[in-house]
Amino acid sequence: xxxxxxxxxxxxxxxxxxxxxxxxxxxxxxxxxxxxxxxxxxxxxxxxxxxxxxxxxxxxxxxxxxxxxxxxxxxxxxxxxxxxxxxxxxxxxxxxxxxxxxxxxxxxxxxxxxxxxxxxxxxxxxxxxxxxxxxxxxxxxxxxxxxxxxxxxxxxxxxxxxxxxxxxxxxxxxxxxxxxxxxxxxxxxxxxxxxxxxxxxxxxxxxxxxxxxxxxxxxxxxxxxxxxxxxxxxxxxxxxxxxxxxxxxxxxxxxxxxxxxxxxxxxxxxxxxxxx
Length: 276
What we know:
This protein is α+β, with helices and mostly antiparallel strands and 276 residues long. It contains seven helices and 15 strands. The strands form three sheets. Strands 4-3-5-6-7-8-9-10 form an eight-stranded mixed beta sheet, sandwiched between helices. Strands 12-11-13-15-14 form a five-stranded mixed beta sheet, sandwiched between helices. A two-stranded antiparallel sheet has the order 1-2.
């Protein structure tokens, strides 16, 4: 992308983020806020607060007049505009829904953007084709961005991963829900464990050096990590699945992957050793 395109997309992400945050604030006045209204397109329950967030984001995109494809947690994959699509936007309008409902200060929005040459090009898009990434933690107002092969930032300042190379010194976040792996070696051999419950935001903690490892041994949705994986890469991090394969998953609503995100290959190898 050229500089003008990058500026346009990042400004659009800011606009979407602002409208979603406003919608969430309004939603808090709704007595049925915690109601599960349906099963979303991704197969998980949709709370009413999720609908408020997603609807606000879609309205902003429709108002741009652009033609694009949106992949979002609740509504699924939809076409916006009538012309051939210029881009795909992978969105989690509310990362950390439970935290938002309970007012725990770790929840936000995740947006990842890749260019398209028409609608049919979507089937060729993988995580490696994401060019612009945006994650905001709403309660703290921290905004993380990345542009492929250029930079990663937090609040417009460059960030980088930590220099931790051994598990015994590492702060690790891992999701244990439904995992079939024995994680006891991880728990007993790392320095600290942290679990906040908002994947995109927590992966950005790794990008800025607060965490040293983000681990999911079961199956994280590609939608959830599409933005934050680029932010980690551009901050100098190292990401694979638990078989040490590069993350090249096709961008699809139902696509899932395991993930081992670390600052470097040495720590990744140490974590993989503890998993085996």
